[in-house]
């Protein structure tokens, strides 16, 4: 592997013009394809095989007029007053006139009034589902009743769901990353070159993703996740190779040779680090949830592009940069080599390994304690930013009717004939009304043929309340005893519960697949059993403490205001499995970068302890910079209003900090110092069976020692 990448690095360096032209041409082509084939994003969380999905499919077949997007207009009279039908009627007419609306139901006819007569709900049924609602329709919907005087009118419902906007706050992370690069390299050229290389990779990856959006359904979060990861790993991978290139230059190597060796050694670590991330993300398919599979594959694609850019385009850019990639003092020959903080830290950790391990493990264990209270749900308008239309409608509905009206459920009753439907619906309504946590059940609404009927169910509490979740399970258990009809429960709350349940079932399989494959990959890289196991156990500490702190802030509300969390509540259902996949891949990144250098020095003759110290000495600075960059990129998304992206950005930024600084740069060298030579033990049988990938470049060194020296090429 190292020899192959060495040749690739030299080829790219020597043919810098053609390599750069190919990437720029590719960027232009996928950019044009993205503009031509861009498709709409979706917020549809379809889950084949779940009860809520079966109910939605049945609605689309048997009750199409009730399967489209739904909006709810909340109207309130001044305090102490009552609503007048003559004042409400114009709002209903304007809502009914919105393009694509099938019906807007007068609250006085539907008896959708609060007991005191001050509040009313206007149900607005659209023909198309939420993914097909246009921005023009949303604007027209928001204008319905906007000019009314003497009453308060707020617009809510799923029809207002739209893709989060990207392009502002995340730039803060990129700016901080640029500053970290400048400080790390001491050269504007090196920093700008590294950032440019990463941005080209992100551009190609994102444009390719948008080009596929016309044929592949993307959720609104998918491009944000791909952008988040593409930027973070793109900068980090370029940083590692550039750092090794500068080190080889400092050792006196000619530039083309330095580029080849940097790509062969650090590039090998980048390839395998990227492979662990890709495995972790692609492995999300085991959950069996289409939108999650697409998210994982999209993010994996951007990471794969980042790896390709790092080992091909970066050497070409290094050729263009020339000696300016070095700080001015080194270019002038004034720099004096000295040991950095990494060596000091490595010696300290090696000497105090036992107390450091105890403090680190206990401390991370304590931080993980809030995980016991972890609750999951899909986001709703109650977690939206204050001042948004959906949040205003949610609050006004809760004020006038109770939070349960924001968590309405639908029981779909289907049978062969109308008589069977009526009998089953009546029996179901009676049973459901007896369920604790249910406030009311509306009379059945049959379709035109009478073969399907809907029962609207109002819980007592909000969509994310534990009592509402219990009520859904209890309702399903009770209606399952009714013979002669098929009854299934759906609605946004039920969908969220089914997502959480399905993800919980998939989690053990996912962990086994991802951790198993990655441990095997690390075994190939490091020729060791204990090093991969240590890496996996360290990740458990990372993920436990990360979840604990995230739950404490986003769910329990501790320090919530500091991070812009207006309404603490359950974490989004797919955050745990997504976070585990991404963080495991990134954790293995730092494991590969640090330990591959330890392995390299050990193979080349250093003692196990000295190799550990050398690995920290050579890579502590660059891993610190990489972790700060990745944290900055992820942290930039915390400033977004969307609660899903905010929590995802926070958890990823925190996880990187914990894993890089506490686990990889503290606990890992402590364990390596404790294990000594045993860390590199591999049974002879496995040693013969496993292919030698030569990540540490031992065969490359032999190849260079036995081959004729390359002829330097004058650049610039």
UniProtKB/TrEMBL annotation:
Q: Name one Pfam family in it.
A: MMPL
Membrane-crossing ranges are 171-190, 195-212, 224-245, 266-291, 297-321, 352-371, 507-526, 533-554, 574-595, 622-640, 652-675
Keyword list (alphabetical) reads: Cell membrane, Membrane, Transmembrane, Transmembrane helix
Question: What topology in the membrane does the UniProt record assign?
Answer: Multi-pass membrane protein
The primary location reported for this protein is membrane
| InterPro entries to which the protein is assigned, alphabetical | MMPL_dom (IPR004869), Mycobact_MmpL (IPR050545), SSD (IPR000731)
Q: Which Gene3D superfamilies match?
A: Multidrug efflux transporter AcrB transmembrane domain (1.20.1640.10)
**Organism, per UniProt?**
Acrocarpospora macrocephala
Q: What is this protein called?
A: Membrane protein
**What SUPFAM superfamilies has UniProt attached to this entry?**
Multidrug efflux transporter AcrB transmembrane domain
Its family remark reads:
Belongs to the resistance-nodulation-cell division (RND) (TC 2.A.6) family. MmpL subfamily.
């Amino acid at each position: 592997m190292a020899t192959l990448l060495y040749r690739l690095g030299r080829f790219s360096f020597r043919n810098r013009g053609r390599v750069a032209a190919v990437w720029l041409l590719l960027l232009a082509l996928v950019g044009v394809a993205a503009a031509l084939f861009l498709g709409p994003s979706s917020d549809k969380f379809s889950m084949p095989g779940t009860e809520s999905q079966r109910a939605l499919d049945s609605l689309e077949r048997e009750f199409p007029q009730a399967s489209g997007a739904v909006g709810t207009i909340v109207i309130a009279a001044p305090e102490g007053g009552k609503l007048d039908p003559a004042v409400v009627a114009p709002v209903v007419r304007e809502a009914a006139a919105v393009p694509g609306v099938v019906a807007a139901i007068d609250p006085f006819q539907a008896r959708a009034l609060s007991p005191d007569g001050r509040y009313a709900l206007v149900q607005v049924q659209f023909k198309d589902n939420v993914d097909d609602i246009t921005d023009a329709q949303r604007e027209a919907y928001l204008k319905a009743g906007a000019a009314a005087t003497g009453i308060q009118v707020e617009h809510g419902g799923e029809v207002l769901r739209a893709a989060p906007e990207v392009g502002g706050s995340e730039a803060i992370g990129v700016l901080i990353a640029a500053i970290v690069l400048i400080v790390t390299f001491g050269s504007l050229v090196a920093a700008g070159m590294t950032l440019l290389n990463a941005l080209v990779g992100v551009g190609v990856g994102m444009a390719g993703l948008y080009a596929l959006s016309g044929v592949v359904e993307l959720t609104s979060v998918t491009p944000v996740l791909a952008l988040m990861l593409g930027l973070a790993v793109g900068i980090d991978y370029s940083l590692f190779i550039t750092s090794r290139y500068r080190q080889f230059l400092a050792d006196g190597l000619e530039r083309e040779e330095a580029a080849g060796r940097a790509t062969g050694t650090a590039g090998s670590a980048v390839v395998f680090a990227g492979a662990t991330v890709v495995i972790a993300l692609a492995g999300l398919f085991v959950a069996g949830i289409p939108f999650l599979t697409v998210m994982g594959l999209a993010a994996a694609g951007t990471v794969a592009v980042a790896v390709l850019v790092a080992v091909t385009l970066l050497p070409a850019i290094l050729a263009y940069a020339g000696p300016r990639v070095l700080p001015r003092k080194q270019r002038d020959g004034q720099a004096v080599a000295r040991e950095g903080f990494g060596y000091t830290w490595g010696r300290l950790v090696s000497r105090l390994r036992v107390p450091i391990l105890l403090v680190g493990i206990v401390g991370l264990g304590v931080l993980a304690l809030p995980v016991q209270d972890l609750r999951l749900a899909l986001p709703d308008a109650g977690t939206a930013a204050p001042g948004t239309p959906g949040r205003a409608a949610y609050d006004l509905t809760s004020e006038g009717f109770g939070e349960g009206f924001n968590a309405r459920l639908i029981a779909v009753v289907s049978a062969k004939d109308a008589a069977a439907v009526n009998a089953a619906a009546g029996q179901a309504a009676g049973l459901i009304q007896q369920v604790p946590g249910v406030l009311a059940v509306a009379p059945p609404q049959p379709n035109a043929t009478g073969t399907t009927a809907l029962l609207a169910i109002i819980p007592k509490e909000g969509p994310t309340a534990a009592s509402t979740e219990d009520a859904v399970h209890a309702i399903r258990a009770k209606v399952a005893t009714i013979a002669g009809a098929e009854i299934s429960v759906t609605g946004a709350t039920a969908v969220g519960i089914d997502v959480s349940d399905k993800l919980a079932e998939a989690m053990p399989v996912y962990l086994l697949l991802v951790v198993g494959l990655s441990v095997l990959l690390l075994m190939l890289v490091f020729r060791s059993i204990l090093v991969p196991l240590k890496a996996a156990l360290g990740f458990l500490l990372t993920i436990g403490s990360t979840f604990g702190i995230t739950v404490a802030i986003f769910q329990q509300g501790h320090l919530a205001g500091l991070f812009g969390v207006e309404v603490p509540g359950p974490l989004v259902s797919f955050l745990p499995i997504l976070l585990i996949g991404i963080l495991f891949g990134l954790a293995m990144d730092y494991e590969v970068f640090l330990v591959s250098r330890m392995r390299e020095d050990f193979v080349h003759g250093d003692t196990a302890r000295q190799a550990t110290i050398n690995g920290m000495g050579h890579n502590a600075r660059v891993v610190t910079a990489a972790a700060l960059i990745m944290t900055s990129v992820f942290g930039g998304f915390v400033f977004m209003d969307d609660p899903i992206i905010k929590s995802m950005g926070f958890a990823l930024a925190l996880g990187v900090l914990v894993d890089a600084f506490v686990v990889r740069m503290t606990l890992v060298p402590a364990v390596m110092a404790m294990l000594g030579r045993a860390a590199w033990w591999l049974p002879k049988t496995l040693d013969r069976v496993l292919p030698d990938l030569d990540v540490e470049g031992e065969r490359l060194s032999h190849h260079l020692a036995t081959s004729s020296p390359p002829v330097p090429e004058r650049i610039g």
